[in-house]
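Worked Example 4.2. Consider the chain below.
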Amino acid sequence: MTKNILTVKDLGHTYSDGQQKVTVLKGVNAKFEGGQIYCIVGESGSGKTTFISLLSALDHVQSGDIKFNDQSIHKIGQSEFRLNYVDIVFQSFNLIKYMTARENVEVALDFAGTKNAKEHAYAALDQVGIGHAKADRLVQKLSGGEQQRVAIARAMTSQNPIVIADEPTGNLDQKTALKILDLFRKLADEGKIVIIVTHSSQVARRTKAIVKHMSAGNLK
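Applying the procedure from the previous section yields the following structure tokens:
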């Protein structure tokens, strides 16, 4: 099976703070391969959030290019890329608040055309420690850590080849965090590209590669 590859070439990004332009990323190059977990670490202000926003096609590439299997995401189209290529697990969860936990996961399964979506949603939630009772609660009635797990379960059910997670274990206790990392490993073993942004040294130690110093150019 051919590996999916996400490549970043000479990526640059600036923003205006109202008085002057600030360079966040400059000449960044990187390659992410399917079947691996990558960890992005760095100090606050180093460009991590901007970088994953660009990788996720949430923001426009100003200079350089991002390609998936040699095709520019600009050519693929940002909306198409977000819908059919990448799943994002946000710190803010990005869940549909008027739906239950199960319904949030079921939506992703319906998009993928999965049969018996309800049962699959329950099974995915159970894998992240959300039983039937809590699966049928509105997500806004769940704790922050539980909402984080719902977001991860939703990503687990998707067929998209890329998973990008922003501090996915930030609201979880150590035992649950390790279980969640095992689930990300399972996604990588299925051939997905898994990219995690974290401040946790524990998470970093359990990933394939540690990526840092983005503003310096090449990611290593």
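The CA atoms of residues 7 and 153 lie 26 Å apart. The radius of gyration is 17 Å. Compare this with Example 4.1 before moving on.
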